[in-house]
Amino acid sequence: MTDSMIDSFANLIPGFGSYRSEQKRRDDDVAARSYLVGRLQECKRDLQAVATQLLEGGNFQAISQAEKLRSSIELAQSKIRAAVEGYSSWFESSKVDETKLKKVLELDNDLVAVVDKLQHEISRLSKDSFDTTSANEVVHHLKERFSRRAELLAK
Asked: Does 27 or 34 have the greater pLDDT score?
């Protein structure tokens, strides 16, 4: 049996076509969040490399700042990883709010841009110039944007 024949049969079952479409959106949501979690893991790895240099130089105050930033990134990463999958279940209305989906997509794109900015801020850190203020602000913005995304999906 070909995939198109299976699709044809599946579309004969009432509600199954919209279920598959909703499942695809849920899968896309999980993939987007997994991507963000992976990128944040890269940020933590890069931060750890700088923290190792700080440790070797004996800059314990900067190590404390690095740990606070790492902890904040970890919290954001955990919230993103543990978020409830977006969109409705099979048993809810099959009507999709396209405006809401567009806003979620815009937020997802913004989240990627925010993580890009965080990566940039971390790359600027060095054992000679270690100020985490900008990076902490970016992490705060990331948490706010992700909370907004969660609010949209909860409506």
From this structure: 34
Report the amino acid identity of residue 19.
Y
The DSSP annotation for 63-100 comes to HHHHHHHHHHHHHHHHHHHHPPPPS--TTS-----HHH
Could you tell me the pTM of the whole model? 0.77
Structure tokens belonging to residue 135: 């990076």
Closest CA to 51 of 127, 135, 136: 127
DSSP 14: T
Enter the tokens of residue 84.
């409830």
Number of domains in the chain: 1
- What does residue 15 show for φ and ψ, rounded to 5 degrees? 85, -15
Please give the Cα distance from 84 to 150 (Å, whole number). 8
> Which H or E run contains 13?
none
pLDDT tens, residue by residue, 63-86: 999 999 999 999 999 999 988 665
Q: What is the dihedral of CA 133, 138, 140, 142, to 10 degrees?
A: -170
Domain interval for residue 14: 3-154
DSSP state letter for 15:
T
